[in-house]
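help with this record:
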Amino acid sequence: WCTEAVYERVQGVIDVVSGYTGGTRANPTYRQVSYGQTNHAEAVRVVYDPEVVSYKELVEFFFASHDPTQLNRQGPDVGKQYRSGIFYKNDEEASIARSVKKELDDSGKYSKPIVTEITPYDKFWMAEDYHQNYYEIHPNDSYIRSVSRPKVEKFMKEYRDKLKPEYKKG
C-alpha cells in the first residue's frame, strides 16, 4: 500500500483508501488476504478531480511508484496478493492503462517486461482502519523507513510539479 502515500500527495487527488480487490471472498480480512486465501490483491481506491489530474497521469504515477516487473511481489512482500495490477472500470480506462503499459515496455526503461495485470474492476473491500494512512501515522515503522519512504521520496522528487502545495516544501 505504499501507493496510498504517493497518491495522497498528488494535486487533484481527493481521497485514497487502502483495501482489497480482484479476489473471490466477500469482506476479506487482512489476515485472509496476507495468507493468500482470497486471491485478492492489496490495492488502493483513488478518488480524484479529472479537471486537475487525468486518469492517464494516475496510471503513470502508479507505474512510477513501484516495480511493475516483479511478478507476485513487491520488494520483501511475496505472494499473489502483492501483484501489480490496475483494475479498470470502463473501456476507456482499460485502453489508457494498456497504452501506458505498452509505452513503458517499449521505452526500455525496465530491463525486464512489465507484468502488471490490467483487469476489470469488480468490487473493492476497504482494509481495516489500522491500515488507512499507515505511512503518515507510523513514520518510524521499519517497513515505512526501509521500503515505503524511499519510494515516496523518489516519486516526490520526480513529480514535484504534480504535488499538492504542502508537499512541495523542502
About this structure: The chain has a mean pLDDT of 94. The CA atoms of residues 75 and 147 lie 7 Å apart. The beta strands are 13-21, 41-48, 73-74, 77-78, 85-88, 117-120, 124-126. The first strand starts at residue 13 and ends at 21.
